[in-house]
Structure formats: C-alpha cells, structure tokens
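Known limitations

Structure tokens in this collection are predictions and should be treated as such. Users comparing against experimental data should check residue numbering before alignment. To illustrate the layout, the record for Tetratricopeptide repeat protein is reproduced below. The input appears on top and the generated tokens appear beneath it.
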Amino acid sequence: MIRRTLPVLALLLSLVVGTPLLAQQTAVDYFESGVTKSRSGDFTGALQAFSMAITMNPDNAASYYNRGLAKANLKDHRGAILDYDRAIELNPKDALAYLNRGVSKSKQDDHRSALLDFGRAIELSPEDAQAYYNRGASRSKLEQYRGALQDFNRTLELEPNNQAALYSRGITKQKLEEYSGSLADFTKLIELSPKKSQPYAARGASRIELNDFNGAITDLNKAIEITPDDAESFLNRGFAKGKLEDFKGANIDYDKAISLNATNYKGYYGRGFCRSKLGDQKGAVQDFNQAIELNNTNTESKTLFSGRISRATLGSLLNVVQERNKLNELSAERSEAYFSRGISKNKQGDSKAAIIDLNKAIELNPTYAEAYFSRGLIKSAQNDQRGAILDCNSAIKLNPRYAEAFYVRGIIRHGLGDENGGCLDLSKSGELGYTPAYKVISDYCN
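Generated tokens:
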C-alpha cells in the first residue's frame, strides 16, 4: 500500500531523479476522493476526481470503472460504456465491469449486447445473483421468457427473498400464461412488503386471467388504496366489475382510469362497453371511436432535443466565452478586437454584423477556437445548424478539451436526429466539467 507521507530524503530524491512516486500518490488521492464523493452521492464531483486520477495514471482499470459508475448514476450510459470498455481492456477478469457495462447497455435498449456482458459476468462470478437477475431482465425485454424464467429461478436460489426477482418471475410467468404459478410469487412478495401496491395489482391481474373476479377486485382495491393514481389498477378493476356485470361500478373505474391516462385505448373501450350496456349508445360510439383512434397512434416515438440554441442559452454561453476572454496585449493583426466587437454587436441584437466581425477574427487568426465557437453559437441561433456544427468541429479540433463546444455540438446533432452522436458529445462535455450537460443527458439520452 502506498504511504501517505514520505521521508524528507525520499521526497528530495524523487524530485531530483524524477521518479513517479509523488505523481502516483497524487493519483491515489484523487481516486480516494472520487470514492468518497460517490459514497456521498456527489457523482459530478466524483467524475471529476476520477478524471484527474486517470490523467495522472491512465492505466488504472479501477479509475475507469468507478468513473463509469459515476456517469451511470448521472444517467450518462453511453459515456459509462466507454469507461467500462477501457476498464475491461485493462482488466479482462473484472466481473463487475462486465455486469455494469451490461446494465448501461440495457438502459440504452441494447439488450442483445447486454446479454453477452451478463453471461461473461456469470462466467467470472457464478454465484452473483445480480448478474442472473439482470440477464433475466434483458431476456424478458427480448421476449425470451423461458430463458428469463431460468435466470430468475437461479437468482432466487441464491437469494430467496430477492424482491425484484420475485416480482419479475411472477410477471414472466404471466407472459408464459402460467397464472397459477405467478400467484405464489406475488403472495410471497406481499408477505415481504405488505405496503407495496405492485404485487397486489399483479396478483389481481393474474386472478382475472383465472376468472377469480371477486379475488381480483379485493387485490385491486388494496393496490388502489396504496397507490390511488395507478391507472392500470382502475382499468383492471373496471374489467373485473364488468365481468361480474357491475357496469355502473365498472364505468366509474374506467372514468378514473381515463382521467389518469387519457392515451390508453383500453379505458375508452371498456367505458364504451359499459355505456352501451347502460343504454348510452351515443356515448358508447364516441368512446369506441376514441379507442380505435388511439390504438392506431404511435405513442412510443423518441423525443429529440431542439437543435436550435435558444436566446437564453446563447447569452449564457457567450458570457462564458467573454469571461474567459481576458484583456491581453492586442496582436498586430487585431483579431482580438474583431472578436470582442463581434460579441458586443451580437449582444446589441445585430447578429449579422457580429458574424462579419467573427469571420474577420478567424481570417486573421485561424487558430482562434473561441471565435469559431462563438460564431457557431450565433449560426445555431439563426438556424444554420450545419454551419454551427462545422464551427464547433473547428473549435474542438483546436481545443480538444472545449467542454462547451461538445455541449453545443451534442445538442445540435441530437436535434438533427443523430441521437447517439449527440449524446456522446454531451457525455464528453460533462466529463470535461460542463455539468449542465447531465440535465440534457437525463432528459433526452435515456
């Protein structure tokens, strides 16, 4: 273990001879700081600490692994995968790196690749219940229900009271139409956690399939008592009441389900059926129309971030540029003066004149990264997104650690439909210290 203090003679020798001892000690300090910050929930601070440890010792697998965990906790799963890749490259026998890379891949809906990682984690650590559980979850997503059931069985052999595995196994049995078998899992889960609504709701759903409608209503009553805004439980209770020909009670449940989730066609269909039975044919037809319309609507499409830089974002980023632009001696070509005048003109609302000045600053000094970036910001605000990307590319080429340029390029790429490229840019921006990137990652990259 590395000592925290060095004898004076050893310290002097390390300075004279240039041994890496002091640098290694400093890398360890950053690593330990990262671990401490992770434990306290400061994942942004942890990420920066692990990045410093990596800068000082780029061949330490544990630093990449832990930075990957920090990124994953910030919902930056693309960035986490890149760190796990490097950790595995440096230490191919690290079961946890495979396990967590699989988790991040599954968060990105790459379940087939995640299965390979979970399989490798199981090979390296065959008694790890979490690896079996995660593989089962990915198999379920791929509709490989028999394989998933085997994995959940193995999880529960290793951890008989694993609540997530009990619930998942019960749901998997439902998928396989093994409803009687699912009841035991949900019942045990209720014994372990009587104040959770999900097992009551799930057991109620299984009882409906077994035609035990009174038992289903009892379970769904409890689920709704615990979670009064669960639309699915109201839908199922309405269905059970309808099967018992309590159409008035069912109609009330469908009303509530629709008020909680107006996009679920099942609510309209169920209410339409009840209205028809209660003699309201006009209302029934309206509900059936709505059910048909909603059933043909794709509500699963991903949301793209607006690629255009807003005025507020433009102003804040230009302020960052201007704060960094300290007053220095004016160079002979006066590119700094053109740059500063361009920023001022844009603040006065004259973006066209600002672009002209920034063009001139770049012409006079082709290595002026801030000028490219600022021009890219203004181009994006003018909706010239392709031009903005080219300017961000130039800024990043000149300054590979330009966090704000990665941020802006990421937003624009995402807005243009390149979700993966955009999110990787945002990940790099956050890694380099621009923390607003993680809010965008959380909202649009998962």
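For this record: The mean pLDDT is 88. The two ends are 40 Å apart (CA to CA). Please report discrepancies through the issue tracker.
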